[in-house]
Specification:
Length: 580
């Protein structure tokens, strides 16, 4: 049965040329002990009582795509929470090569969070970071929640919506490159424009620092060498006494007592004579001769060491003075000799720049004029493209909103010239009039909650064509919508599902009736523990759920007949859409 369904899914996906979320497996996430949802292509709907756990499913999808998680996500008493998502027919995205993960058209994502808050992420079995998972997830699926209606009210986001609609990334990058170059030159120019007295003070400071560091004649590793030599000088008396004792032991003392070298020489002579008489003594004779030569070498080394221990008190004073200088410079400029050499190089570079600032400022002034023109030209090109995109967006969104039972709506993208910044040379805002005869105004002052939901849906419908993600998730974006408007929202989502896989959490029967796949999220209590279950609904199950969504617990024959009529009408709508 499952094999047949998978084959059908692959055939549909092949026709569309996109992938989709085919399976979501959840374990020990909040009140969900274990749940598995096999999503299909097209329009998937999740319904259930308030508090049943619909938001948990959306949170799980967000988590397995690299969203933020915490240990509060783990079910009480469980050691860990685990979420697995399977995406079917995924193209060979550049992400795989960039992150060293083998590509397969069936993609397995896994996120695990322990009760201690530790986590792990895997893609096709390969361990990756949450950041890498998030970067991949953004290319597979978009989640649109109720909060996006609030974001739509904030004008600072309007420009990004317009640029996304117009696919203006290339022009925006060109503009930002010109703008960043201009800003870099402007900063350097501003630095050169400091007043003359400040410049003179800075030159004096730099010249003093350069002279002080150059006079010090710093050498990498010098301080460590000096410390070692000071330690040697501090113990010179004891060292000399030890060396002298060793030399006496090797040479002998003034009383005529033989030293080690004399005794070893005698032993060598005797055994060498024995070796001339018998072959058996030759190995021992060789060892004694080697020992005699090595000891004589050691004697010469000790003599050299004795010479090196001879020093004058003045040498120690000079060494201490040098160490004091190095310590003072280290406190003043920080770091060791290598860091102070780098500081010296920076001082020279800055001094050179200040000394020739007049010539440099003249050159920068010319460059500023050139880059300012480049910024303005790129900004005007970007503005022209945005205005063209805005006209298209206005027409498209008005059409969408009229289809969503807002016949008197007017929607416009307003441009206001501004000083160039990284976004461009214009401030862009969306304005609208919800009813005929009213003036255009800011969305925050004009649109109601239901109108915002429809504007967001219209925007997503229009932007969907340029988005590369294959799956779109809507989390109760229909809040505040009812009646015919709810019917139109459902039809729009169903239409969007002709291009993308759509997963929608809703409480409206008008929307649920249009689903290609309907899943019920329910909650139960057993043994003083709460459990959430998720399961697909057949035709009869859908009738019951639609009747519940319409009339609550009071399900009657009439409400079931009405639910059945809704389902039949939805099927007719979907068939008519396919014919078109």
């Amino acid at each position: 049965m499952m094999q047949g369904r998978t084959l059908r899914v692959r055939l549909i996906l092949s026709e569309r040329g996109v992938g989709m979320l085919s399976l979501l497996h959840i374990e020990n996430v909040a009140v969900v002990e274990k749940a598995e949802i096999a999503f299909g292509p097209g329009f998937n709907v999740l319904t259930g009582e308030t508090g049943a756990g619909k938001s948990i499913v959306i949170d799980a999808i967000g988590a397995v795509l690299g969203g933020r998680v915490s240990r509060e996500l783990v079910r009480t008493g469980a050691e860990y929470a685990s979420i697995t998502a399977v995406f079917a027919d995924i193209p060979q995205l550049p992400w795989f090569e960039e992150n060293g993960v083998d590509w397969e058209d069936e993609l397995f994502l896994q996120r695990k969070i322990t009760a201690e808050g530790k986590g792990s992420c895997r893609v096709n079995g390969a361990p990756i970071s949450a950041g890498q998972l998030k970067a991949l997830g953004e290319q597979l699926l978009n989640i649109h929640g109720q909060h996006e209606g609030t974001l739509l009210l904030e004008e600072r986001y309007h420009l990004s919506y317009l640029d996304g609609f117009g696919s203006l990334d290339t022009l925006l990058t060109t503009y930002r490159t010109a703008y960043d170059e201009h800003r870099t030159i402007q900063k350097e120019y501003d630095t050169l424009q400091m007043d003359e007295s400040e410049k003179a003070r800075r030159i004096d400071t730099l010249e003093h620092q350069i002279e002080e560091l150059e006079t010090a004649n710093l050498r990498p590793g010098e301080e460590e060498e000096l410390r070692e030599h000071r330690s040697l000088l501090a113990n010179a008396g004891k060292l000399a006494e030890a060396v002298e004792g060793a030399l006496v032991a090797l040479y002998g003392d003034e009383d005529g007592s033989a030293g080690a070298i004399d005794l070893l020489g005698r032993a060598d002579d005797q055994i060498s004579y024995a070796a001339s008489l018998s072959e058996r003594f030759k190995p021992v004779a060789g060892d004694l001769s080697d020992a005699r030569y090595r000891l004589e070498d050691t004697l010469e080394q000790l003599k050299d060491l004795r010479e090196s221990l001879a020093f004058s008190p003045q040498e120690l004073d000079e060494l201490e003075s040098r160490l004091a200088l190095l310590r003072r410079l280290t406190r003043k400029y920080g770091g060791g000799e290598t860091e102070m050499h780098l500081f010296l190089a920076r001082c020279k570079e800055e001094l050179d720049g200040l000394s020739y600032s007049a010539n440099r400022a003249a050159k920068l002034e010319k460059q500023l004029a050139q880059t300012a023109k480049a910024v303005q030209d790129a900004g005007e090109t970007l503005r022209s493209a945005r205005q063209t995109a805005a006209a298209d967006m206005e027409a498209r969104i008005i059409t969408e909103l009229k289809d969503l039972s807002m016949p008197g709506v007017r929607f416009a993208v307003e441009f206001e010239a501004q000083a160039p910044d990284r976004t461009g040379v214009d401030f862009v805002s969306f304005v609208m009039s919800a009813n005929a005869g009213e003036k255009l105004g800011k969305l925050s002052k004009i649109a109601s909650g239901g109108e915002l939901a429809r504007i967001m849906l219209a925007l997503k419908r229009v932007l969907a064509e340029s988005e590369t993600v294959s799956t779109m998730v809507f989390d109760e974006v229909d809040t505040g919508v009812s009646g015919i408007a709810a019917q139109r929202v459902g039809e729009k989502m169903s239409g969007l599902a002709g291009q993308k896989q759509v997963i929608c959490v809703t409480h409206l029967p008008q929307i649920a009736a249009l689903a290609d796949g309907h899943y019920l999220i329910s909650k139960s209590v057993s043994g003083e523990r709460t459990y959430t279950q998720v399961g697909p609904l057949d035709h009869e199950g859908r009738k019951l759920e639609l009747a519940r969504l319409t009339g609550g617990e009071n399900i009657t024959e009439v409400s079931l007949l009405a639910a059945n009529e809704q389902l039949e009408a939805a099927e007719q709508f979907k068939k008519s859409r396919k014919v078109k």
